[in-house]
Design a protein that fits this description.
Blueprint: E1 10-13, E2 21-26, E3 29-35, H1 41-46, E4 53-58, E5 64-69, E6 73-75, H2 84-94, H3 97-105, H4 113-126, H5 132-143, E7 154-156, E8 165-168, E9 173-175, E10 182-184, H6 187-197, H7 203-210, H8 216-239, H9 243-258
Helix pairs in contact: 2-7, 4-8, 5-8, 5-9, 6-8, 8-9
Length: 260
């Protein structure tokens, strides 16, 4: 990695699950490097959703390395996810025609509820997961599948954990780590935010800042997607042999199924 940066640059891993992110520094100059980052990083940068893209280079082995401006800041705390600026940035992302157009041009089709359910079935078979909480969760998704309809699809981040929101020292908010982004019903992202971080009595006011009313259809869709994402998270933890986390999520899954 240091070879193509030139003399004087020092590169160190930036952490993360993939191990593909690095921090490069030369004196006071610092940049964030990512190997094989999201192909629509340029659009995200142009719209101010992620820190500015500085350059892109292709290595001899075919890997693509991107460099972004390093920003001094911090991750959002859980309690800060209820802020207006989070709702505003999420609305900007879901309303971006440029982002959606770019995503579709590289061959991404909308991830419909039917496809989500089929994918979950395949993964559950692969990992041989068929206990009672999972069965109840899958039955819930199957029984309500025909009611989960939306006429609006957008680019969804699909991993809106508060650790992926960066607030700079200049009070600019970014949403990073777009490797798992999909085209889907925005209710997928919204459900994950509201169920994870916002008190239910504040859902309407948060969504008002986003630009939506909390109607029955939106509530049903958000709940459906949260159930599906919870099952997906169980599968992910089982795949990593993190059974304590998986079992806790199964308890959460039963709460979601029985308290709708």
């Amino acid at each position: 990695m240091e070879m193509f940066l030139g003399d004087g640059w020092k590169v160190k891993p930036a952490g993360g699950i993939t191990g593909e992110a690095y921090i490069a520094q030369q004196g006071d100059q610092k940049v964030f490097l990512k190997r094989n980052s999201s192909p629509f990083l340029a659009v995200l940068s142009a719209e101010g959703i992620v820190p500015k893209l500085l350059w892109t280079k292709r290595l001899e082995n075919g890997d693509v390395v991107t460099a972004q401006r390093w920003v001094e800041g911090r991750e959002l705390k859980s309690k800060e996810m209820n802020q207006i600026r989070v709702a505003k940035l999420m609305s900007k992302i879901h309303g971006s025609y440029e982002l959606l157009d770019m995503f579709k041009r590289i061959g991404n089709e909308p991830l419909t509820p039917k496809v989500i359910l089929e994918n979950l079935r395949l993964q559950l078979q692969l990992f041989n997961i068929d206990d009672d909480p999972i069965k109840k969760g899958m039955d819930f998704l199957d029984e309500r599948l025909d009611d989960i309809k939306s006429d609006h699809y957008a680019v969804c981040h699909a991993d809106i954990n508060h650790n992926n929101w960066i607030l700079t020292e200049e009070e600019q908010l970014f949403l990073i780590d777009w490797d798992g982004a999909i085209v889907a019903d925005p209710a997928l992202d919204l459900g994950l935010i509201l169920y994870s971080y916002i008190e239910k009595e504040n859902w309407s006011s948060w969504l008002e800042q986003y630009g939506l009313e909390l109607g029955d259809s939106l509530q049903e869709r958000m709940h459906w997607y949260v159930v599906s994402q919870t099952i997906a998270s169980v599968i992910w933890h089982v795949g990593r042999k993190e059974f304590t986390q998986a079992n806790q999520l199964k308890n959460d899954l039963l709460d979601l199924v029985y308290h709708f």
